[in-house]
# Entry
Amino acid sequence: MLKKLGVQKGLKNINIDSDSHIIYKKTNLSLVVLRPNDLAQMGDLIGQGNKDIITWIGKTVGRNVAEVVYKDEAPKTNNELITKSFKALETLGFGLISLEKYQEDVEILVKVDSPLYQALEENQEIISNIYVGIFLGILEYIGRKATGVETEAAWKNKNINYSMYDLKIEGVATQ
Amino acid sequence: MKTLKIKGIEYNDGVISLFDERVVLFPPSIIGLLSSIYGEGAEPLLVFLGKKLGRSMIEKWDFELKPKNIKEITELFADIFSATGWGQLVARNVSDEQIIFQLMHNVSRSLEIPTKFIDYFITGYITGFAEYIYYKAKVQETLCMIDDENLDFCQWVVNKLAS
# Structure
């Protein structure tokens, strides 16, 4: 059956080691393949109203990604670390993520084209909260405490294919 | 270290598709996070979640690749499972009544803190598959490399139950 399953195209910067573990580049970040619906179902089990836990899960992912980017690519500025973390998230399939506005210690605006919830008919808010958490986690990694909100959402407005997140930096994060 | 390659996988502008279905690469530590919230209570939740995922995964791939018999569909399940990052799953003694799965290199071992909770999720995942092919099945993890450091695999025994 393996032949039928085949070994065909590859994903750039995603490797599989000799133990069949999926790894981001040559870092120690292990990954598994999930569908957006799987994430939504996890979130749904936790409880739609439990936004804090879902955001917290996202934060952990954001911190993990920022950490491997910091170790692997040695960015020289916070702006560079954030941008490179977004590139890493793109590689993982989170959509096209761009930093629309960067105001050090004040605010950042993030645009996500083709967000994960595009594939869903329900529970889109869960995915949206995961994104907020991821961005807050990246900011936390660089020592910034922030609050985030989705200001434009493709799941609410069928005329757009992106979401926009506004993250207001409130101060220094305590580790 | 090789580049991840799976038939049917495509990448385009931040979107990964597997046979036209959107997927994402996510750290498996998400399972451990759920356990840190719910403690031991996370076990049934993870089994339930795994079951839903395993069931929908095998339904999809059964439709896409149309295996001919239990042996082929089991091999397909093990191959896809192995390609999705959880470890290397091998099916032994595949019959119309029983399957034994062994998981080498359980991804849990690669985490900073290895967690048994990933095994609960995998138990559910295998149950989702087992109930698809047997209709009713009992799935039990009989050997675990997280519990016993001398083992280099985890083992699940799947038994068909009378319907």
